[in-house]
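User: My instructor asked us to take a sequence, write out its structure as tokens, and then describe one feature of it. I'm not sure where to start. Here is the sequence I was given:
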Amino acid sequence: MSLTQVPSGMLQTTAQYYGFKNRVMNGQMQIDQRYSGAVQSPAPSGYSADRWALYKSGSGTWSYQLSSTAPAGFSSSMLLTVTATETPSSGDYFIIQQPIEGFTTADFNWGTANAQTVTVSAWVYSSVTGTFSGAIRNSATTLSYAFSYSIPVANTWTQISATIPGPTTGTWVGGTNGVGLYLDFCLSAGSSNLTAAGSWTSGSYIGATGQTAWVSTSGATFYLTGVQLEKGTQATSFDYRPYGTELLLCYRYFQKSSAYGEPVGGTSAANQRLLVTPYAGSEYSNSILFFTEMRTAPTATAWYSDGTANVWLALPSVVNRTVTVATASKYLAVSAATTGDGSLQGNWSASAEL
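Assistant: Let's start with the prediction itself. The structure tokens for your sequence are:
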């Protein structure tokens, strides 16, 4: 099935529905803990706005930035810009992706006779017109459903939606903390990554045949916001969740000690975190509880206000100390050698992304 343009104001609101219908997190593109809106150049991959990953293969390059350009009802979007062009070869791809946890999609019952139909919707805006596409894939990337949609007018917000029948076959992760499904938005891809739109297909495909080669246009831009994935046969009004609620949902996958406006590795001394650490003999040792339990034991990094990785400042001696970080799903433990100082000062980040 092809994604279709939805006339403004035509989305239906489900009667007596009280939120959390949207299985996508940060679909409004409001939260950007890692970069706080600063321009980034993912190569070949990296995270952008919280819960959104960017993957590319090929000689072309792109940049990411959170943008205030948005359709009515939204305040922000994800902006991608072509910084070096290419003509995609067979195996190339440029995709925006959100992996969605199995606990979040278990009630879809995919891979069973009770598989539920879902609908994906979004707002898109591109300087390049033509046919664009995307896909939903299982965690093993052995089954794909490609969809396509048209952007007929450049630099104009277009609302899109498509209904996807639930697959009754294939391997799908149920109620676990693994990948329940991948949701992909394709901006360019070679032929080996594309398949016919509108049906479940064996193999790993991230878009539909006929995909526009967006990356072939110098300086091309693409904005994305208002992304929603919900059960049902039609797109309904966007599931607006309170900002604090959305941030807590994102904390399950990524969190950091520095203030929201300070990017990871930032050098603002005002945003350092002071850890008072008891010491025994020649070693600091203390634990910090995460803001909320994370999906799994995360990968953690530490840095000091000068941007130096794996170093915190010991006080009162004002000497840099190399720190070691260990994690579990509920806490982070920091240890370092000391000669009698009373505290360490620095920052940390923790990632438990899918």
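For the description part of your assignment, you could build on this observation: The first strand starts at residue 4 and ends at 5. Try explaining in your own words what that tells you about the chain.
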